[in-house]
From TrEMBL:
InterPro entries the UniProt entry points to: CTU1-like_ATP-bd (IPR056369), Ncs6/Tuc1/Ctu1 (IPR000541), Rossmann-like_a/b/a_fold (IPR014729), TilS/TtcA_N (IPR011063), tRNA_thiolation_TtcA_Ctu1 (IPR035107), TtuA-like_LIM_N (IPR054306), UPF0021_CS (IPR020554)
Matching CDD domains: CTU1-like
GO cellular component: cytosolic tRNA wobble base thiouridylase complex
Entry-linked PROSITE patterns: UPF0021
Matching Gene3D superfamilies: HUPs (3.40.50.620)
Domain tRNA(Ile)-lysidine/2-thiocytidine synthase N-terminal residues, every copy: 52-217
Protein name: N-type ATP pyrophosphatase superfamily
Domain of life, per lineage: Archaea
Domain 2-thiouridine synthetase TtuA-like N-terminal LIM: from-to ranges: 4-29
Matching Pfam families: ATP_bind_3 (PF01171), TtuA_LIM_N (PF22082)
Organism phylogeny: Archaea, Methanobacteriati, Methanobacteriota, Stenosarchaea group, Methanomicrobia
Amino acid sequence: MTIKCKKCNHEAIIFQKYSGMHLCKKHFIEDVERKIKLTVRKDYSIRKNDVIAVALSGGKDSSVALYVMHKILGNRPDIQIVAVSIDEGIHGYRPHSLELAKKLTETLGVRHIIKSFKDEHGVTMDDLAAMDREKGACSYCGVLRKSILNRMALEIGATKLVTGHNLDDEAQTVLLNHFRGDMERMVRLAPPVAVEGLVLRAKPLRNIPEKEVALYALVNSLPVDFSECPYAGEALRGEIRELLNNFETNHPGTKYSLLRGFDKLVGALAKELPPAKIEKCRICGNTCTEDICQACKLLGRT
Ligand code: SF4
C-alpha cells in the first residue's frame, strides 16, 4: 500500500517520527529548506554585502549546506558565496571527495578555493596518523583544519564561515560535553559573537537530522561522497551516537529536545563562564585564547 504525503496526495518518501508526518519529495524538500531559512534568520542574520565562506569537504553535510545557501542567497547581487576546501592529505579518501566538491561548485557556478595541510602546515594527515600521538587523529585534523579555514575565510574577507554540522552532530556534542563536564567548550557551541581575527561560524543545518541531510542530498542528486574517512572513529562520540540513535528510535524528538534545552541554557551558562581573553599566537600570529594556538601546540612548535 502506498503511503500518502500528509500535505498532498503524492507518495511519501519519508516518515518523520518526531513530527508524525509522512512527506513526499516536494514537501520534504520544502520542510528542510524552511528549517534552514529559519535557523539562518534566527541565529546568523545575513547582512548586506556579506561574504559567506562555506567549508566544503565533498561529503553530504557540507555539500547540502553549500547547495541550500546558494539556493536561498545565490540570487542576491550583494552577497558573495565562496566554497573553501581543505585537502588534509588522506590517501584513498580525500581526492575523491574533493573531485565531487569541485563538480558541485562548477555546477552551481560558485568560486572554489582549495588549500592543503601539506602546503599550510608541512604535514599530511597520513603523516600525522603514522606518528606516535597523544591524541586521536581527528583531534589533530580538526584543529589544523579549523585554523586553515579561518585563515582562508579572513583572506577572502568573509563575514561568515558556514559549516555543515547537522542536528545529530550538535546533539552528540552537547551530550559529549556534559559527559566530559566541559562547560567552557559547551558555551562555544552557542551561536557565536564577533571576535576580531575569528570569522563568525554559522551552522545552518543544526536543526536538520543527519538522515534527512543524506536524503536531501539524494533527492537533489547532489554529487556527494558517502564514504567514511579511514581515521574516523572517536570512541566516545561513537558510543554517544549509538546511544542517541537508540533514544531517538524509542523516544522520537530526543535530539531536538537536547538541542532546545541547550539553546535555553547557554545564555545563562555564558554569563557564568565569560569568553576567554583573545590573544595572538606568538608562533604563527593566529587568533587564539592562549599564548600559543592549538595548531602550533599539536605540531610541537615552541
Ligand atoms: Fe579528519 Fe577525523 Fe574527519 Fe577524517 S574523520 S577527515 S581524520 S576529522
